[in-house]
Amino acid sequence: MKLIQITDLHVANETEFTHGVDVRQNFLDILQAAKSFAPDLLILSGDLAFDTPEEKVYHWMKQHLDALGLPYTVIGGNHDSSKILAQVFGLEKHLTGDDLYYKLTVNGQPLLLLETSNGTVSKAQLEWLGSELAQLNAPAIIFMHHPPVEGGVPYMDVNYPLRNMAEVQAVMYGHQHPVYVFCGHYHVEKMLCVKNLTVHITPTTYFQMKWQEPAFVLDHLKIGLREIKLRQDGVVESAVVYYEGNKTE
Ligand SMILES: [Fe+2]
């Protein structure tokens, strides 16, 4: 079973200033790269929108995703409206109020997809997550936009963290099996392990940041995706692959 995660696409409308990065071409290129892996599912883990959600941009993305011929799904990031995402991508049945969180079963493997677009995991969602984990007598695979632990990226940890991460961690630590979380939001590649929890932060298709710096410092404009293999022998294998990014000038 193979999954491809792409994240923080930050696709702009055609007239928007994108700091010299051709985010639309980057998105089209990463889709072709994703297709070459022939995954069972492609997951877009939030920040589809450049800055503010635009239905028109989501429709443009959907048109290209549909043309790819791969099964795919989306969750929201802090630059998205999950409600509009759900409407555009036909996921309304997974909406709880304005929150888009749900379980998908792919080839018998449950995947839990969380909502963190307002920077928290709601109380209702935490209860849902707890009950899903309690029913799951196996390792859990979770996708969410924000990392549920501090990423060791001072600029992000200070300014844009998941605000109720202690509550989220408590639910995840309660699982009697490993919990693998795949997220984005930080514009870096990192892995963090604590107790039964392994958190993979996946690089974006916009820009990557220097994670060591206290202030924002651009690292490079390569774009990345993450391949995740859930192997028959129980190994969860994961690797990031980088590609050249596109510039507008
Ligand atoms: Fe984000």
What features would you describe in this structure?
The protein has 249 residues and is an alpha/beta fold. It has one domain: 4-Layer Sandwich (Purple Acid Phosphatase, chain A, domain 2). 25% of the residues lie in helices and 27% in strands. The chain contains 6 helices and 15 strands. The chain has helices at 23-36, 55-68, 82-88, 123-135, 154-159, 165-173, and strands at residues 2-6, 41-45, 72-75, 95-96, 99-100, 102-106, 109-113, 140-143, 179-183, 190-194, 197-201, 208-209, 218-220, 223-230, 236-243. The strands form 4 sheets. A 6-stranded mixed beta sheet has the order 6-7-8-9-11-10, with helices on one face. It has a 5-stranded mixed beta sheet with strand order 3-2-1-14-15. A hairpin with an 8-residue loop joins strand 12 (208-209) and strand 13. The radius of gyration is 17 Å and the shape is globular. The N and C termini lie far apart (40 Å). 42% of the residues are buried. Fe (ii) ion binds at residues 8, 47, 77-79, 145, 185.
- Tell me the strand percentage band: 25-35%
Bound molecules: fe (ii) ion
CATH superfamily: Metallo-dependent phosphatases
Strand order of the largest sheet: 6-7-8-9-11-10
- The rounded distance between the terminal residues' Cα atoms is 40 Å
Indicate the CATH architecture. Answer: 4-Layer Sandwich
Question: Could you describe the largest sheet, including whether it forms a barrel?
Answer: 6 strands, mixed
Radius of gyration, in angstroms, nearest whole number: 17 Å
Total count of strands: 15
Write down the oligomeric state: single chain
Spans of at least 5 consecutive residues whose pLDDT stays below 50 are: none
Shape: globular
